Amino acid sequence: MMKNKAVVLLSGGLDSATALAIAYAEEYELHTLSFDYGQRHQREVEAALAVARHYDVQEQKTITIDLRAFGGSALTADFEVPHATSLEKISQEIPITYVPARNTIFLSFALAYAEVIGANDIYLGINAIDYSGYPDCRPEYLEAYERMANLATKATTQDGRKFHLHAPLLRMNKADIIRKGMELGVPYGLTWSCYEGKDLACGTCDSCLLRLNGFKEAGLKDPIGYLPQ
Amino acid sequence: MMKNKAVVLLSGGLDSATALAIAYAEEYELHTLSFDYGQRHQREVEAALAVARHYDVQEQKTITIDLRAFGGSALTADFEVPHATSLEKISQEIPITYVPARNTIFLSFALAYAEVIGANDIYLGINAIDYSGYPDCRPEYLEAYERMANLATKATTQDGRKFHLHAPLLRMNKADIIRKGMELGVPYGLTWSCYEGKDLACGTCDSCLLRLNGFKEAGLKDPIGYLPQ
To answer: Which of A229, B106, B194, B202 has the fewest CB atoms inside 10 Å of its own CB, making it the most exposed?
Structure first.
C-alpha cells in the first residue's frame, strides 16, 4: 500500500524528535526538514540528521537561511543566552531566545516542500505549555497559519488538496512528551536541546532547565551528558 | 519628524518598483527586501538593487534562499520558460512559472524583518488581475496572511503593534500600474521582467508579454531593450 507522505519539521531537539516518532507510528512516508539558520547551537542540526537517520526517513532536507541578517534574538545574535531563569518565568514571558517569525518562516518552507512532493500533512513539535511565551507556539496561531496555507498554493486552489498542520504535542508538558516518546522508543540520546552548543549540555539554560525538569517529572533519566554543576 | 518605517518586497520587476514608489510617496522610511532564490533570471536581483539605490532607501537586504531545493517551478528548475502563451491563458491558469509558496516564504521573511526594525507596514507589488492564476496573489490569501501575521509575533502579542500588508496594485491591471508609476516617476528603465534573464528582454515570455501589453495599453513606450522579434 502506498503510504501518505508527511513533512516533519525536525530541529534536533526533544520535541520535534517526538513529533517525528508520532508521524512514524502513524505510518506516513517521512520527509524531514531542518534549518541551519545561524543558530548558535549548531549541534542541533547534527542531532536532526542523526534522528532522521534513526527513523530511516525517505528524504531529509536541510535548508540554510540567514536569520542573523535580521538579528533580534539571543539564538542568532550577540545576546547572552539566559541561564538559571525560573521555569515559571520561561512560561510567562517572551524570552530573548524568541526568534522573530521563526515558525512562520519554517512552516512556509515546509508548505513549499509539501506542495511539491504531494504531502498534505505537516508535523511540528511545538507546544503551548512550556513555551506559552512564544506567540508562534499557540493554537490560535497554528489555526490561522493552516487557514492561510490552504489559500496559498496551487495544491489547494487547483488540485483540491488540503493541508493539515499536526502539532501532536501542543497541549502536552515536557514530562508528558518524554513519557510519550519513551513509549515510542524515541532515541533521546541523539537529540540536543542546550542553547549553548558545547560538547556537553550546560544544564542551566532555559532549554536545559525545561528538559531536565521534564525527565525528572517523568521519573526518567536523560541519556545525554551534562556539564558538572 | 520621525518617519514610520515600511518593509517593501522588491523583486526588481515593474510591479514591486511601483509599490516602492507608492510607499515612497506615502513618506515611509524605506527598508527593501529582495531574494536570491535560484531564479533563472538573476538580472532581477541586480535590477532590485538599482531601484533601491534610485529611491535612496534606508536599508536594502538581499536574502539568499534555495527554492531550487524543492523544484516544482519553471523559474527555479529545468522546465522550459513558457513563450508566446496568450494573455488570456496567463490570467486563467496557474502557470508553470508558479513557484510553490513563494509569496508565503517572502512575506515570512518580511515579517521577521519588520518585527525587528519596528516596521508595522509591509508593501508588496502583487496584483490579482494579471496574475489571477497565482493563488498567493489573491485578496483572500493576503487577508489570511495578515491575520496569521498578527498572531505570530512578539510585536503584536506583547508590544501591541499591528502589521498591515499593503498591496496597492492588487486591483490594477498592468496598464493602470504603468500609468500610476509614470505619474510617480518610477525608473522603469532600471526594472527587469523577462523570465529569460539575457542581455535584452526576450519579448515573448509570459512576463514580457504582460509588460509589453501594459505599456501598449497605457500608450507609453517601455524604456528597456528587447531582442528583435
So the answer is: A229
Are A198 and A208 in contact, with CB atoms under 8 Å apart? Answer: no
Can you read off the three cell numbers belonging to residue A191? 537529540
Q: Would A226 be classed as within a structural domain? A: no
Q: How many domains does chain B have?
A: 1
Higher pLDDT, B97 or B116: B116
CATH number of the structural domain spanning residue A94: 3.40.50.620
A64·B66 Cβ contact <8 A: yes
CA distances from B175 to A59, B4, B219, B226 (A): 45, 30, 9, 19
How many residues are listed for chain B in this entry?
Answer: 229
Which residues, in sequence order, are bridge partners of residue A32?
A8, A60
Q: Which residue from A113, A136, A148 is facing B145, i.e. has the nearest CB?
A: A148
Q: Which residues of B touch A145 (CB under 8 A)?
A: 148, 152
pTM: 0.91
Q: What is the ipTM, given to two decimal places?
A: 0.90
**Distance separating alpha carbons of residues A106 and B108, to the nearest angstrom:** 9
Q: For residue A52, give its domain range.
A: 5-218
Strand ranges of the sheet holding B121-123, from the earlier edge strand across to the other edge: B59-64, B29-36, B5-9, B121-123, B164-166
Residues of B with a Cβ under 8 Å from any A Cβ are: 61, 63-67, 69-72, 94, 98, 100-105, 107-109, 111-113, 115-116, 135-136, 138, 140-141, 144-145, 147-149, 151-158
Residue B91 has pLDDT above 60, yes or no: no
